[in-house]
Specification:
By secondary structure, the chain is mainly alpha-helical. The chain has a domain of about 180 residues: MetI-like (MetI-like fold, Orthogonal Bundle), CATH 1.10.3720.10. It is about 75% helix and about 0% strand. The protein contains 15 helices and no strands. Helix 5 packs parallel to helix 14 and helix 13 packs across helix 14. The protein is flat and about 85 Å long. About 30% of the residues are buried.
Length: about 325
């Protein structure tokens, strides 16, 4: 228990440095982008004097490192800043978009794993059967498709040709179907392939052959011996997917004009709205660190060999 606690504290300390490095990096990238956010939001007829006043108002006339430390000081107080484009608080913008992103990405994440894990287990146990061959071919097709292309294809078929589903925005449950299918199918295919390959590898282990030799039923062996060990990399992938519950899918939300965090991030990058971009990326970075730590802890709980290795773990 102490080893696990020490390991978690070490990873957390490392995570703080990672988040800090990410915040510096994204701030530097935004500073290096061509163009001027004040010019982008200003009317072309606005006088240079007024433009300079606006730049001073937003603190953009100060050196980059001063701007960064001012922003960081506000973050420690729970203030992510104010949007240059809209004048609204970044936290207000995030709260308005967050429910839509959670609806889409949360539903997709749940569907991916409740479908992919059982299918991967069953097909691996029935390797080379007709069902296994068909599912492998189908998943390869979806796995190789770019999600934005798949989304446009769904819009064309179900929205324009068949006219049974809306193709953009959010106006109820029907609006969720196309972006949910587009986000879920490629990821489901990837998780299915991962689960299947891990189960096949575990099935070749000696302790599994021993369990069968003792006369244990196949279901018992699969669920108690095989699945537990095969789930370790799948669990890690699940936790690595959690940060995007907040960040959303930038490309897909833009394709479907979904009013979520991904769409907000894309528009903010386009308009060089520094505070919004920095706020969203910071949240994603923090969730990534936390998710990594949780994934490591759950993996150690599932696999005793990892727990034994924690004693010699170092940053």
């Amino acid at each position: 228990m102490n080893d696990m606690l020490n390991y978690s504290i070490k990873r957390l300390i490392l995570g703080v440095f990672v988040v800090f490095a990410v915040s510096v990096l994204i701030f530097a990238i935004m500073q290096l982008m061509p163009g001027d956010p004040i010019q982008l939001i200003s009317n072309p007829r606005v006088s240079p004097q007024r433009v300079e006043e606006l730049r001073q108002l937003w603190g953009l006339d100060k050196p980059a490192y001063i701007q960064y430390f001012y922003w960081l000081a506000r973050v420690f107080k729970g203030d992510l800043g104010t949007s240059i484009s809209t004048g609204q608080q970044v936290t207000t913008l995030i709260k308005a978009r967050l429910p839509y992103t959670l609806l889409l990405t949360g539903s997709s994440l749940i569907l991916q794993y409740i479908i992919a894990v059982p299918l991967g287990l069953i097909t691996a146990a029935r390797k080379n059967s007709h069902m296994d061959s068909i599912l492998v071919v189908i998943t390869i097709i979806f796995w190789s498709m770019p999600p934005f292309w798949l989304g446009i294809l769904f819009m064309l078929v179900f929205g324009i040709w068949l006219k049974v589903l809306p193709i953009s925005g959010y106006s109820g449950f029907k609006s969720l179907i196309l972006p949910l299918m587009t986000m879920t199918l490629p990821a489901l295919a990837s998780n299915f392939r991962l689960t299947r390959s891990e189960v096949l590898e575990v099935l070749r282990e000696k302790y599994v052959l021993t369990a069968y030799a003792k006369g244990l039923k196949q279901k018992r062996v699969l669920y108690l011996h095989v699945l537990r060990n095969a789930l370790i990399p799948v669990t890690v992938m699940f936790f690595l997917s959690l940060p995007w519950l907040i960040g959303g899918s930038v490309v897909l939300e833009s394709v479907f004009a979904w009013p979520g965090m991904g769409n907000l991030l894309w528009k903010s990058i386009s308009s060089q709205d520094y505070p919004v971009v920095q706020g969203i990326i910071l949240i994603i970075a923090m969730l990534t660190v936390i998710s990594n730590i949780l994934g490591d802890i759950i993996s150690a709980m599932l696999d005793p060999r990892i727990r034994l290795g924690l004693k010699g773990d170092s940053i």
